[in-house]
Amino acid sequence: MQALTEYLNSEYGIRFNNNALLIEAFTHSSYVNEHRHLDLTDNERLEFLGDAVLEISVSDYLFHEYGHHPEGLLTRLRSEIVRETSLYHFSLDCGFDQYVRLGKGEEQNAGRKRPSLLADLFEAFLGSLYLDQDLKAVENFLSKVVFPKIKGGVFSHGMDFKTKLQEYLQQSGEVSISYELVDTFGPAHDRFFVVEVYAGGQILGQGKGRTKKQAEQMAAKSALDDLLNNKS
Amino acid sequence: MQALTEYLNSEYGIRFNNNALLIEAFTHSSYVNEHRHLDLTDNERLEFLGDAVLEISVSDYLFHEYGHHPEGLLTRLRSEIVRETSLYHFSLDCGFDQYVRLGKGEEQNAGRKRPSLLADLFEAFLGSLYLDQDLKAVENFLSKVVFPKIKGGVFSHGMDFKTKLQEYLQQSGEVSISYELVDTFGPAHDRFFVVEVYAGGQILGQGKGRTKKQAEQMAAKSALDDLLNNKS
């Protein structure tokens, strides 16, 4: 475990007061099962706690960072961030797979790279850090490995264009976005709608679609494309 | 809102530094929609935050209170505690339904007693308390309105204590457990049963219930509580 404590210290400036907690976090149940005589504890209870520690840390961050996002958007973002696939990647980014103690069977079954195992490990580590220190220490750690990704838009994929446009524009404060139907054409069975999107009275884009909703999405997409291209 | 601040102070010793946060927590979106000229904020973002605040507070409590419960049991308990029906009852217990600001339509539709609305209100209040003060203040409040219920076994229904006791005792080898009916009292339509549970000839606990089955469950629960407390 010395390698791990040195790594955490040099990489993240983290020093545990109680190393037993850190060891517990990096001990998978398969290891405990193969070493029953040692009376070890696996990391599952710490994972239970860490799950909630992650949830509050991320929620607090999102709440303050996106002061103008409505609740629905915050909830969607949060669930993207705390899902297994995301935690798995955080764990890999931190190199935690190199340090977890596994049983031989688990090792042979490629458990060391298994997403659910590494996601649980990430939560267990947060749980141990919270117990050993406090929420502040956890947030400090996350501000190095998770929050920059949120800010970089890693979890904003899969969002519809209207939501993304809103997210983008509201970074710099409250803004009123409106969509206006400016044209419809074609016969009833083959109709097209044209919508323009405005913010602060200024036109940002235009879109066409077979429904009003689709046209709005296309207008938002066109606005986003423009905004992002001009920025870069 | 003065009634609410006085009530929180006298009932729970809570004084907000920023009353605007408290007011926001008790403002339903239906009220905001009917008073657009006032530029109010509804409690949905606070609810988003409060959801996570509740989760960590309850998790921390369970983790420490049940130092020997496995993760699966903790997770099951937690989900019972934070589900909508439970939060609805906490909200009612606290009399929060008397203070929430609703729109007229919502009021006429009995919104003031709607479970989801009151559950969200409870979370929003926790979110506001956390923002105004800290997690400690939230835990202090929950130690008055939620934790005693957990300790009282309110959320342990649906759990099979007999199975759990058997699992617990058999960790250290095969053991024979028996349940004995030792008393019944009350008239036929209001009868109570008293059961004692034994293992290895030793009494481990006693339980009372309206059916023999229920009394057995309570006896097993009492035995488990004793065993788990003595271990820690």
CATH architecture of the largest domain in chain A: Orthogonal Bundle
Q: Which fold does the CATH topology of the largest domain in chain A refer to? A: Ribonuclease iii, N-terminal Endonuclease Domain, Chain A
Element string of chain A (H = helix, E = strand):
HHHHHHHHHHHEEEH
Structural classification of chain A: mainly alpha
Silhouette of chain A: elongated
Strand content of chain A: 5-15%
Largest sheet of chain A: 3 strands, antiparallel
Amount of helix of chain A = 55-70%
Which runs of chain A of at least 5 residues are low in confidence (pLDDT < 50)?
none
Describe it:
With 232 residues, the first copy, chain A, is mainly α. Chain A has two domains: 2-151, Ribonuclease iii, N-terminal Endonuclease Domain, Chain A (Orthogonal Bundle); 161-231, 2-Layer Sandwich (Double Stranded RNA Binding Domain). In chain A, 59% of the residues lie in helices and 11% in strands. In chain A, strands 1-2-3 form a three-stranded antiparallel β-sheet. In chain A, a hairpin with a 6-residue loop joins strand 1 and strand 2 (192-199). The model of chain A has no long low-confidence stretch (mean pLDDT 91). Chain A binds chain B through residues 44-45, 47-49, 51-53, 55-56, 58-60, 63, 69-71, 74-75, 78, 135, and chain B through 44-45, 47-49, 51-53, 55-56, 58-60, 62-63, 69-71, 74-75, 78, 135.
Quick synopsis:
The structure is a homodimer of 232-residue chains. Chain A is built from twelve helices and three strands.
